[in-house]
Amino acid sequence: MKLSEKGELSLLEAIRSKFPTRSKTVITGIGDDAAVLKPDLLVTTDMMLEGVHFDLRLITPFQLGFKLISVNVSDIYAMGGRPSFILLGIAVPGRTEDAFIQRFFDGVKAAIRLYKLSLVGGDVSSSKKDMVVSATLLGYAKKPIGRSGAKPGDRIYVTGNLGDSACGLELLKKINRQVEFDKPLNSPLRWNVMKPLLKKHLMPQAVNPGKFAKAATAMIDLSDGLFIDLTRLCIESNVGAKIYKSRIPVSNSMKTASAFLGLDPFRLAVAGGEDYELLFTAPPRKRPGAICIGEITESGMLVVDEYGAEKPFAPEGYQHFKLKK
Amino acid sequence: MKLSEKGELSLLEAIRSKFPTRSKTVITGIGDDAAVLKPDLLVTTDMMLEGVHFDLRLITPFQLGFKLISVNVSDIYAMGGRPSFILLGIAVPGRTEDAFIQRFFDGVKAAIRLYKLSLVGGDVSSSKKDMVVSATLLGYAKKPIGRSGAKPGDRIYVTGNLGDSACGLELLKKINRQVEFDKPLNSPLRWNVMKPLLKKHLMPQAVNPGKFAKAATAMIDLSDGLFIDLTRLCIESNVGAKIYKSRIPVSNSMKTASAFLGLDPFRLAVAGGEDYELLFTAPPRKRPGAICIGEITESGMLVVDEYGAEKPFAPEGYQHFKLKK
Fold this sequence. Notes:
The structure is a homodimer. By secondary structure, the first copy, chain A, is an alpha+beta fold. The first copy, chain A, has 10 helices and 13 strands. The first copy, chain A, folds into 2 domains: 3-140, CATH 3.30.1330.10; 155-312, PurM-like C-terminal domain (Phosphoribosyl-aminoimidazole Synthetase, Chain A, domain 2).
C-alpha cells in the first residue's frame, strides 16, 4: 500500500507499535508534542521541506528561520515546558547565496532571543534542489502536561483566535510574492486587516503556557487544525469532546478577509492549521483565563451549531499522505 | 557569494560567530561531535538526503535505517558518551510503499537494539520527490571528550582500518544496484574481499570508546576522512600534527579491491570518509590499545612518507559546498 492511501495517523501507529517504550527513563515516548525523558527533560524535533512546508517565493529566509524556531518552541510550550537548547539542521543547494543563509540565521537569532534559547549545534549540508531545515529543541518541565490527562466534564480551552494563519496563507497565495511587514501593500483589503493574518502565518509566536499550566489536565498545540488536534488529544485521553461553533474565537480581520476571499471562516478556524495557539482541558471549577469552547465527554466528537444541533466531526486538517477529497 | 564558492567550514564559522554560547549550562556548543549540556547531557543531530548522502538504487531501506542510527551513535561515542534516546525525522513522497517504510524502520530497530537506545519521538511528513531522514541522539558522559584537549607530544591513534568504506562505495558504484549480505555476488573479485568493504559502507558500526576514553585527551569520529577530521581536531586544540603514511592501517581486502579498481589505497584511507572509526590523542606514556599513526605538534599539518620525507597536507575529504577540483 502506498503512503498516500494509508494516511499519516496509521503510519505513525505502525511505527509506534514497532518501538514499544520499555525504558524506565522514558516517561512519554512517541505520540505527544515532545518526549519526556529522565528526570524532567523534554525533546522535540521538526523538519520543514521546501515545496511541502514552505515556498521560498512566498516566505523570506528571515521569516522561515523565525518560524522554524517558533514551531518547535510551541511543542515544548504545549508540554508546559521551558524551552532551552536548540540544534538546527539545514540543507541547501550549492547555488544558494551566502546572504540568503545569513538572513535565515538572522531570523533564527531573532526567535532565539525572543524565547531565550541557546543554539548548541546542528548540521549543515548540501541538497540537490530543494531546501530542507530541521530543528531539535530541548526543554525542561517539572510537571509535563501530556495529551492523555483529559477527563469527562473538563472544559476545553483555546488561548486565542483560530484561522488567522490559514486565512493569512490564502491571502499570501493571492499576493503571490514575499511580504515585508514594514512595507504595506496596496490592495482592496486594508493593510491593518491583512498584516496580522499574514504575520500569524509567516512569523507565528508560540504561546507561553505559564498561566494555564497549573489548571491544565491535558494540552496540545494547534499546528494542524482544531478538529484534528482535538481528536488527537481525545484519542490519547480515551475521551470524547463537544465543542460549540458559536464559541470558537475568530478575529474581525479574519472575518473581513475570508469574506473578501469567498472562504468559510468557520472552516478556516477548525481545519486551517498553523495557529500555534494552545488547546487544553481543565476541570470545570478552574478559571484558567482562556477561551472555553466546549467540554470533554465520555466519547464521540461533536460540534454544536448556532441552532443547538449536534453533528459529529471528522479529524480534518493537515495530514501528510492523506488523500485530497 | 554562492555557498559552492564559500565552502562548508567557512559557512560554519560564520554561523558560529553569530551565535556566541553565553549560557552557563552549555559546556560545549557548536563545533564538536555533539553539544554538551548541563550537567552531563550530550546531543547531536544529522540529516541525510536522497541524492546527496544516499542513493536508493544502491542502499536498501533496511541498510539506510541502520546507517542513520550508526552515524549518530558515532558522534556520541566520539564524545566518550553513552547514547541513550533517539528521535527520527523522515520525509518521503506519497508514492512510497508502506513496505519500504517498514523495512527502513526494521533497520532502525536493529541498530537501536545493537546500541541499546530508546526511540522516543520524531516527525513524519511528505516530501515532493526525494527522501530526507534525520536523527537526533541524546546521550550522557560524565567526562565528555571534546576536540580541544590535544597537546603537543600527544600520540595520535585510530581504532581500525581506514578507507574500507570509501573503497566499498567505489565497488558499489560498479555493482550499480542494491547488495544483500546473505546473497554473494558473482564477480572477478572474491565475495570475502568485497563483503567487508561493502558492509563497512552500507552498514557501518560505530566504535564504542569504552577502553580508549580514559586515556584520550581529544577525540573525533572519522566521518569525512582522516585529513579533514584530524585538521578539525587540531584547529579546535590549536595544535599541529605529524602522521606517518606507513602507519595508516589499511585492510588486505581494501588493498586488493583498490588495485582491482585502479585506485590509490592511501588516498582512500586519508580522504575517503565514512569510516566511523575513532581518531583520538593520548599522552605518550599511555597505552590505549589502538593504532598509533603519529603525534601532535605545535603547528603545521604534515604527513611523513615511506622515505622519511615530510609534506604538508590539506584538509581533503568530504566537504559540502566545496568546489570539486
